[in-house]
Amino acid sequence: MSRLFGSVRSRATLGATLVVAVALVAAGAAVLLSLRANLTGEAGTRAERSAQAVASELAARTPLDKLSGLDAEDTPVQIVDEDGVLLAASEDLERISGTGIAEVTPAPARSDGDDDGDDSDDRSGRSDDDRDDDSLAPGEIAQGASYTNGTATVDGDTEDYRFAAVEVETPDRGRLTVHAGAPLAAEHSAVGTALTSMLIGFPLLLGVVAAVTWLVTGRALRPVEGIRREMAAITASEDLRRRVPEPATHDEIARLARTTNATLAALESSVERQRRFVADASHELRSPIASLRTQLEVAAAHPELLDLDGAVEDTVRLQNLAADLLLLARLDAGERPAGTRVDLAALAREEAAGRESVTVDAEAVEVSGSRGQLGRVLANLLNNAQRHARERITVSVRREGDQAVVGVADDGEGVGDADRERIFERFVRLDAARSRDDGGAGLGLAIARDVAVRHGGTLTAGAAPAGGALFELRLPLAGADRGTPPA
């Protein structure tokens, strides 16, 4: 059960069904209450009309035994005086409740001696001076009615009724109250029918909602399941060349598939680059180690043939290569540069010192970063320029807007347009005929660009005014916002 409701499909179906169920219950309750109120109001209106008709007859001095409203079969009527005495009631009325008068048999009529005169004010029991401001004049019917609910038994049938009470000031009997009822059978029947329909229809509707939601959610999540299966297969096979299926839609799942494929492509590229790096590093390390071992073995057998200078040279070369590989490993691991201020002009003069044919034209410009890593960038650029320059190398440091620009130009053959990006790849040498001793391991420019990027800057290759190569390092000035280096 926990696994079933642990899926997105099940939770979505359950959630949609619960929401619709709550909405249906609320709507059904509102409909039933509104229907009941309307039908009860209609019954009250019918009861009031019946009471008004009887009151009109009483106001016209109609005798109690001649009232037409007492003959209606479905309208129980009671006429009560001010003392609460029942004067008249509908025929066949056997029992009644809800009107406040439980009697169904009228009280005996009073004798003539009880009535001392014909004056209407005496019959009403009050003179004009005794009436309140809100009292009714003889023959006047009160506006509006009061309503109650109750039951009545007429000719053996007991039903629920809506009763309306209307007051009338009669000329001969004083203030009378007419209670008339209208049956609520239609209201009960309509409400019961509506409730039965809801009890039958709502579960069916909820079942339809659940089924549709289940199908629609399953159809929508089918590509996700395909992505999951393919990712599981990729994980099991470790084949990063595979890609997850991309649906032909333009929704979030399609974007997820495209993002997943982009991630796989980047991961494949990273793993492939790492493999090449390990292979190239192994190849580059093999040469100086083999040379140094050969020299040591020869020296062990023939000490007089020891090439001490060559051994030292191979050792230095091996040391530099190991340092470059360690620096690249730290950069790949995301090492962030220190936030110290570095004067690029002073650093350029320091790196150019002791090098032949190097001219420095620099203005004081400060950047924020690692002095050691930036010094490595300038050293690598100068080393590269010295391998290709004919006579002259120029180093310039200047400010352009919120950036510091360092240029290293030579008067060599330059770099072709097609190779101006490839030279920054690791272990790349443009001159295949050049020996490793002359051309290096092909890591200098790759390290220089990685350091530049980690400092929020760029390193590009172009053409120098003298016809050779021009490498430009651009870094944000100290205090300026640096771009976030890529992972």
Question: What's a concise summary of this model?
Answer:
The protein has 9 helices and 13 strands.
Provide the fold topology.
Layout lengths: L7 H52 L17 E5 L4 E4 L3 E5 L22 H5 L21 E9 L2 E14 L3 E10 L1 H53 L14 H50 L6 H25 L7 E4 H9 L5 E5 L3 E4 L1 H18 L4 E8 L2 E8 L25 H4 L4 H11 L3 E6 L5 E8 L11
Parallel strand pairs: 8-10
Antiparallel strand pairs: 1-2, 1-6, 3-4, 4-5, 5-6, 7-9, 10-11, 11-13, 12-13
Tell me about this structure.
This protein has helices at residues 8-59, 120-124, 185-237, 252-301, 308-332, 344-352, 371-388, 436-439, 444-454, and strands spanning 77-81, 86-89, 93-97, 146-154, 157-170, 174-183, 340-343, 358-362, 366-369, 393-400, 403-410, 458-463, 469-476. It has 487 residues and is an alpha+beta fold. The protein has three domains: 1-111 and 118-237, no CATH class; 240-333, Helix Hairpins (Orthogonal Bundle), CATH 1.10.287; 336-476, Histidine kinase-like ATPase, C-terminal domain (Heat Shock Protein 90, 2-Layer Sandwich). It has a six-stranded antiparallel β-sheet with strand order 2-1-6-5-4-3. Helix 1 runs antiparallel to helix 3, helix 4 packs antiparallel against helix 5 and helix 6 crosses helix 7. The longest helix has 53 residues, at 185-237.
